[in-house]
Known about the structure:
The chain is an alpha/beta fold. It has one domain: 3-Layer(aba) Sandwich (Rossmann fold). The protein is built from 11 helices and 11 strands. The strands form 2 sheets. Strands 1, 2, 3, 4, 7, 8, 9, 10 and 11 form a 9-stranded mixed beta sheet that branches. A two-stranded antiparallel sheet has the order 5-6. The longest helix has 28 residues. The protein is globular and about 55 Å long. The two termini are 35 Å apart. The structure holds adenosine-5'-triphosphate and magnesium ion. The site of adenosine-5'-triphosphate (ATP) has 21 residues, from helix 3, strand 9, strand 11 and helix 9.
Amino acid sequence: xxxxSDIDNDGSADPAGVRERIRANxxxxxxxxxxxxxxxxVGKSMLAVNVAAALAxxxxxxVIVDADLNSPSISAMLGMKPQRRxxxxxxxxxxxxxxxxxxxxxxxxxxxxxxxISFVQDYDQADGNGAEPVAPAPTRPAELSYREAxxxxxxxxxxxxxxxxxIDLATGLDRLSTLASMVTLDGVLLxxxxxxxxxxxxxxxxxxxxxxxxxxxxIVENMVGFNCDGCRAVRPLFPEGDLNGIAREAAxxxxxxxxxxxxxxxxxxxGVLFVREYVATPTGKVLADVxxxxxxxxxxxxxxxxxxxx
Length: 310
Ligand SMILES: Nc1ncnc2c1ncn2[C@@H]1O[C@H](COP(=O)(O)OP(=O)(O)OP(=O)(O)O)[C@@H](O)[C@H]1O
Ligand SMILES: [Mg+2]
């Protein structure tokens, strides 16, 4: 099977060198978890902030990398203001968020830009022959590829000692493939809706994940029903696909099923942490349980890695 990295290789940087720089830069990271989905808007960023916050409140040192470079949402969901930070070339400290959480995001990076910031850099003003630039100074940005921008972010961020690095990806397994070509992932959490189409896409994701070295260690099924105030039961939102069968076939656990909870949409929009404000609700309990399962998986993964080393 051809894999995305066969196709998505712009040749802009020596892949082995990039991987080595990133590995050195992430040497203080205990475990790395990516949140991925085949289809958009399934709740990756919502889950990232709530799982990270639940673990941070337990005393874990957690950093979230918002790898959705064009439309970052993590800072806003955590109630953080976009800030000017040190230029990437000098190395970037993650921005400080609530409960000791730290965030690396494209809306927290280069100084002087008003967010949102695309992953672009200024054109080199020289013409390549050492001549002076032609006036007026160019204002058009030169594009970096996603791969190049992400590798810069990962190799320049000064993360220090971290228990869990959560990487919140933009939608699409091509993004996961790009990430997996740079970082050794301890696991990937796949988010999906219950519809038959999403469920079929999840089946493909399991196979692709294995092929690209991005092991899917758990699935979260989101928006499985609507829990309205006046209803006695949770009402289905989608005609359901056979996620149980697919998870069984791939031997991957479904680590959580979340109903549609209007207060969850509201809190993420306002930058308020659901797992702190609504800890005792059914959704709060599912989120806390997912966080605990991830914590256990990541501890197990670190222990396995330590055993392998010696
Ligand atoms: N169970 C839920 N109940 C209510 N709202 C939810 C639920 N899950 C997610 N949302 C809301 O749905 C929207 C999409 O979620 P989110 O941005 O986390 O998805 P995503 O997978 O990160 O999207 P993208 O593909 O754009 O990155 C957000 O407004 C979020 O608050
Ligand atoms: Mg997102």
